[in-house]
Design a protein that fits this description.
With 221 residues, this protein is α+β, with helices and mostly antiparallel strands. It is built from seven helices and eight strands. Helix 6 runs antiparallel to helix 7. The longest helix has 22 residues.
């Protein structure tokens, strides 16, 4: 993934956290029949060597899983907050007028090999874990066991498990770090003035990035 030096993120703990926060990705595989792309929720599990595996599932009717082989390369794309950046927000606009629009965003690419796990016990355990992860914060969490077991058994037959063993992580935190501090501050103010959650969240990320740079420059931790 292309990222300018000021936007490139390579810290594993930051990339892992971003994937866990997103919880959902686009998974693209190269196969002998061309590209296959699917959108799916995943569970991110760290391995002992500091890498990770992404556990997910696909519909049995999805041709993606049948096209997977040992030579297939796969990338899982996680999208964080993103938003349009208006050039009218920049302090530089009033000074020189030499400004243009752009897009701010956070993205993580997880590259690796994809394995199909067509095993009923694994799939049931995965669906239990995925459900518990997303139900945990609810006042009355729903559990797979709340549904009749024979019904769940039939439903699980309609999906297959997939596991991506991550071999490389790339991250781009495109938060206007290359612009002046005044332009960054005015961009943050502009994002906070928008009425959509993506802009507000991106504003938080930009504010955090700017603060961390200032802390480093002053020697504060």
């Amino acid at each position: 993934m292309y990222a300018r030096d000021t936007s490139r993120e390579s810290r594993p703990e930051v990339l892992m956290a971003a994937m866990r926060y997103a919880k959902f990705c686009a998974m693209v595989s190269t196969t002998g029949g061309g590209l296959h792309a699917s959108h799916l929720p995943v569970i991110v599990e760290e391995t002992g060597d500091g890498s990770a595996v992404l556990n997910g599932h696909l519909s049995r009717n999805n041709p993606h899983w049948r096209a997977i082989n040992e030579q297939a390369e796969t990338v899982a794309i996680f999208q964080g907050p993103h938003s349009y950046i208006s050039p009218s927000w920049y302090e530089t606009k009033a000074e020189t007028g030499k400004v243009v629009p752009t897009w701010g965003y956070i993205a993580v690419h997880a590259h690796g090999s994809l394995e199909v796990i067509d095993d009923a016990d694994w799939v049931r355990e995965h669906v239990n874990a995925l459900t518990n992860l997303h139900e945990a914060s609810r006042p009355e969490p729903w559990a797979v066991s709340d549904a009749p077991d024979d019904y769940i058994t039939v439903m699980l037959r309609g999906i297959v498990g997939v596991r991506l063993s991550v071999e490389r992580l790339d991250g781009s935190w495109k938060l206007n770090q290359h612009r002046s501090e005044d332009d960054q501050r005015s961009t943050i103010a502009g994002l906070y003035g928008e009425d959509d959650p993506q802009s507000l969240e991106l504003g938080d990320e930009m504010a955090e990035a700017l603060a961390s740079v200032q802390d480093e420059s002053t020697g504060e931790l």
